[in-house]
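Following up on my earlier thread - several people asked me to post the actual chain instead of describing it. Fair enough. Here it is, all 269 residues.
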Amino acid sequence: MIKLIASDIDGTLVPDGTSEIDKRMYDVIKRLKAHGIIFAGASGRQFASMARLFAPVSEDIYYITEGGTVVRNTKKVFKKNVINRNLLFQMVADIKKLKDCDIMLSGLDTAYCEDKSEMFYWMRDSYRFNIEVIGDFETHLTDEIVKLSIYHKDNAEAIVNEWFTDKWKDRFKIASAGIMWMDVTGLSADKGSSLKVLQEQLGITKEETMAFGDNLNDLGLLEAAEESYAIGSARDEVKAAAKHIAPPLSENGETEVLLKLLEELDNQK
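Reply from S.P.:
Thanks for posting it. Predicted structure:
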């Protein structure tokens, strides 16, 4: 029996960079909880953005945030992976050599950028991030950083993979989080390893877990769940790795799968 459902957010539950969630999900999460099933959001987003997105049920769910570097609920942090400060600034210097790319550094509760770029306004106004402009990172940053994100308006993966990935891939995990984003985290930090941490915390097995995703940074998440779903609009690599294919995001595919699960559970009573 399924006891834990973990879901990616952008591209799976909402269109990238929006808060346009299928409002039925709030009732779905409440009904799942009534059946003893826990819901966890797993995202590259920060905790504040996710908590706002799930506001009606924020106290009822768990959060795998910042690309899998943090596991928490609203009251307690169970895991965090902090990037070494010296290596962080070396990577920042390299990223500044990449053409037309912006940098966002993520702390536990706040994100940071150096200036008020297009990326800053998008993160603040669309993703609803807690984000601060602090000027030069090396001079002004005091927070611990769990994730470095590289932003380009339409070609982040190709630009980063020209040479940056080869230079840093042995020391950090570098994964696409959509056409505009490449995320850099510690080697042991991803959604899959964090889902395993949550499973251990809750005493839930892989066989009792369902997961949904659409992008390359969701592969570990799907691998850690027996019942894995790629959204119909997912990348081909994700569809190939998943056990099931759900309808696309445009048809609220995850909601429909979960409503079917709830119908089956209700009929078992």
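DSSP finds eleven helices and 14 strands in the chain. That should answer part of your original question.
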